[in-house]
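Subject — a protein and its fold

Tokens — whole-number codes for backbone shape
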Amino acid sequence: MNLPPGQYVLQVVLPVPLAQRFDYLCPPQIAPIQRGTRVLVPFGKRRLVGMVSACTTKSSLPVARLLPVIKIFEECEPLLNKELMDLLDWCTRYYKHAPGEVVFNALPPALRRAPGNYLRRKANSASQVMAEKD
């Protein structure tokens, strides 16, 4: 389905064991997002960090079913460049593995999460340790 002018669909890979890419609406005030940029998207009842694999003006789903991206993490320059994304696409095809799992296994653990989650978890575990000592 074609979108109105100025509206883009982001094909996002997520760290789930499904061999597909998921379509999300790009925020209208933002120019097309580059491939290799991390985004936060709704997925079922949770929010996941995903990686943009393409930015298009077409989707196989109706526009009404597409959910918007919650947050874009790298607005200036993508985290993964074109060459690395091409290599990871090749790995997905060659090893017949889910694209999101391939991409996210190429990232260090700190970049697989949304910024802030790590700090919150460390603060919670530190407060639990302090509570146990009392």
